[in-house]
Design goal:
With 331 residues, the protein is an alpha/beta fold. The protein has one domain: Metallo-beta-lactamase, Chain A (4-Layer Sandwich). The protein has ten helices and twelve strands. The strands form two sheets. Strands 1-2-3-4-5-6-7 form a seven-stranded mixed beta sheet. A hairpin with a 5-residue loop joins strand 3 and strand 4. The chain starts with 10 loop residues before the first helix and ends with a helix. Bound molecules: zinc ion (2 copies). Pfam families: Lactamase_B. It comes from Paraoerskovia marina. InterPro entries: Metallo-B-lactamas (IPR001279), NDM-1-like (IPR050855), RibonucZ/Hydroxyglut_hydro (IPR036866).
């Protein structure tokens, strides 16, 4: 049975939207949420999480965008647990985006911590770094991009090819346990947003760290970790089903605020994707053929005409992904 999201949007979140960063807060004893600013980004901050173990160590999940201010906030947040950067024993990243792993290398260098990322995400980062793929794939001739828009999109793909890279000490697999003495934190592979995205679940404490897989306010983009063999939308819907069963858990997302009610939120996120699939289906049924033309008929936040550069490239890639999904379902 689903219940309403709790709490209602906290005041500190409204503050953040007005440009004031919320303070770190204690989610559970020894588990803190630390807002890290995202300079120049659409979102004001990401949420890093710091957990203590029973041997004096600290384990950080998603240390956030690299900046001096972000570093100071991370260090100050760790101090709230009564520990210091020297005590950091591991850094785990839910996925490859710079607002999650940007400070991982600095933190590992400063502390000697082990860095852990899912195996598929490491493979994705390698593919992006080698330049074999852009973050939203290469521009497919079948997308039907008009000549006058080609240069803008090609440039966006070039920029998106400069993917972040970190040296990974431990490649995670689904079902693995993080090496945190005194805690049972399990890796839940949730591909969709990227191919090697993971959530982390501490079952006894009933907390679920969701990275960008489940967010309280916004709909995450899909397939943003380079091309994968499977369809990111199909992966994402399956990954929502996977975490929706933990409805008692407190969700600790990568942006926004903590809440309870993951089943309802997963249903909303899935409904959003299905609504777009319906739009794609209608466009295809009306005889629209290319991803460019289909994308122009979909509802985009802020409007299709105003999407430019990377966001437009991403929108077309997502449209192509949905078209592939619809056509696959019709076979
Ligand atoms: Zn992300
Ligand atoms: Zn993010």
């Amino acid at each position: 049975m689903s219940r309403p999201l709790t709490p209602t949007v906290p005041a500190q979140y409204a503050d953040a939207r007005a440009g004031r960063l919320p303070e770190p807060c204690e989610v559970r004893e020894g588990l803190w949420s630390i807002p890290v600013p995202m300079p120049g980004a659409r979102l004001p901050y990401s949420l890093a999480y710091a957990l203590t173990d029973d041997g004096g160590g600290v384990h950080v999940v998603d240390p956030g965008t690299a900046s001096d201010d972000g570093w100071d906030r991370l260090v100050a947040g760790i101090a709230r647990l009564g520990r210091s950067v020297d005590d950091v024993a591991s850094v785990t990243c839910t996925h490859m985006h710079p607002d999650h792993l940007g400070q991982a290398t600095r933190l590992a260098d400063a502390s000697g911590a082990v860095v852990a990322v899912h195996r598929a995400e490491v493979a994705g980062m390698e593919a992006l770094r080698s330049g074999r793929r852009g973050i939203v794939g290469s521009i497919d001739p079948a997308w039907g991009v008009p000549d006058e828009h080609r240069a803008d999109l090609e440039a966006a793909h070039q920029v998106s090819g400069t993917a972040p890279w970190i040296d990974v000490d431990r490649e995670l697999e689904d079902g693995d346990r993080l090496d945190i003495p005194g805690r049972r934190v399990e890796v839940v592979w949730t591909p969709g947003h990227t191919g090697g995205h993971v959530c982390l679940r501490e079952s006894e404490e009933k907390v679920l760290l969701t990275g960008d897989h489940v967010l309280p306010v916004i709909n995450p983009g899909l397939g943003l970790g380079g091309q994968t063999a499977s369809n990111p939308l199909a992966d994402y819907l399956a990954s929502l089903d996977r975490v929706a069963v933990w409805d008692e858990d407190e969700v600790c997302p990568g942006h926004g605020y903590q809440f309870v009610g993951v089943a309802q939120r997963c249903a909303e996120l899935a409904a959003h994707q299905r609504q777009r699939l319906d739009e794609v289906e209608r466009a295809l049924a009306a005889g629209v053929r290319t991803a460019w033309d289909v994308a122009g008929r979909l509802t985009w936040t802020g409007g299709w005409e105003r999407l430019a550069g990377f966001r437009r490239a991403s929108a077309i890639a997502q449209t192509a992904m949905m078209m592939q999904h619809v056509r696959g379902a019709q076979v």
